């Protein structure tokens, strides 16, 4: 029988020669044979892709000694989506720094959707205390960010509270990503540290200068 790979009628079909090896071959059966293997190579790449479909079909029987069953003359294959086709969520930075006296009273944290941008996906986020305390140093925040297809960035805005202290050591809190929905996953940088720096009305003390003695330069008498 003659067997060949064919693109499927699915809108997401594998490309022969790009995603799979082209195959157009004749498989011979000896008397008593009931099956024969037929090999197709699926190419690996680093391109985020959704499910891709292709088919192999029995196209003809050259000998004419057997018939093709139209109910089972084509077999459909699905290459599963890969390379995080729906996206991988990370923070744009592992650490953010903000002054408690920042004019806007806020810090803006960016969540990035890496890899694939297929489909509508979402991810949860929430703050948690470290040395900074919610309600004292910052405003607790939690929620869900939703990304439309093709969208790669969203911002989380967190309020920063000014305590009015002259100087205290740096305080920090964490912002973490939670469950990803819609086929997306979390990347390695799914937690970010926010450092709140305090120097409100800081003053620099200058020690008084010692008494300065003025000495006249010796006069030189011309002789």
The rounded Rg comes to 35 Å
The quaternary structure here is single chain
How large a portion of the residues is in β-strands, by DSSP E? 35-45%
Average predicted local confidence, pLDDT: 81
Level of helix content? under 10%
Element string (H = helix, E = strand): EEEEEEEEEEEEE
Q: What global shape is seen?
A: rod-shaped
Please state how the strands of the largest beta sheet are arranged side by side: 6-13-11-8-9
The termini sit apart by 129 Å
Topology (SSEs and partners):
Blueprint: E1 2-7, E2 24-26, E3 52-60, E4 74-79, E5 88-91, E6 95-99, E7 106-114, E8 121-129, E9 142-147, E10 153-159, E11 168-181, E12 185-186, E13 191-198
Parallel strand pairs: 5-12, 6-13
Antiparallel strand pairs: 1-2, 1-3, 3-4, 5-7, 7-10, 8-9, 8-11, 11-13
Structure, explained:
With 223 residues, this protein is mainly β. Helix content is 0%, strand content 39%. It is built from no helices and 13 strands. Strands 6-13-11-8-9 form a five-stranded mixed β-sheet, with no helix packed on it. A four-stranded antiparallel β-sheet has the order 2-1-3-4, with no helix packed on it. It is rod-shaped and about 95 Å long.
């Amino acid at each position: 029988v003659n067997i060949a790979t064919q693109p499927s009628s699915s809108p997401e079909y594998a490309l022969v020669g790009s995603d799979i090896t082209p195959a157009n071959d004749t498989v011979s059966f000896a008397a008593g044979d009931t099956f024969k293997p037929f090999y197709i190579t699926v190419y690996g790449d680093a391109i985020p892709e959704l499910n891709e479909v292709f088919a192999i079909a029995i196209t003809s029987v050259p000998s004419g000694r057997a018939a093709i069953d139209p109910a089972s003359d084509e077999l459909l294959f699905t290459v599963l989506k890969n390379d995080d086709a729906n996206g991988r969520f990370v923070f744009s930075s592992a650490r953010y720094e903000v002054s408690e006296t920042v004019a806007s009273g806020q810090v803006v944290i960016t969540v990035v959707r890496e890899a694939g941008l297929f489909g509508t996906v979402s991810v949860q986020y929430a703050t948690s205390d470290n040395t900074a305390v919610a309600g004292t140093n910052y405003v607790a925040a939690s929620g869900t960010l939703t990304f439309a297809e093709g969208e790669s960035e969203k911002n989380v805005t967190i309020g920063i509270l000014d305590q009015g202290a002259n100087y205290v050591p740096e305080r920090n809190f964490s912002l973490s990503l939670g469950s990803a929905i819609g086929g997306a996953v979390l990347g390695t940088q799914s937690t970010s540290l926010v450092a709140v720096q305090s120097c409100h009305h800081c003053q620099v003390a200058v020690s008084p200068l010692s008494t300065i003695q003025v000495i006249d330069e010796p006069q030189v008498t011309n002789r």
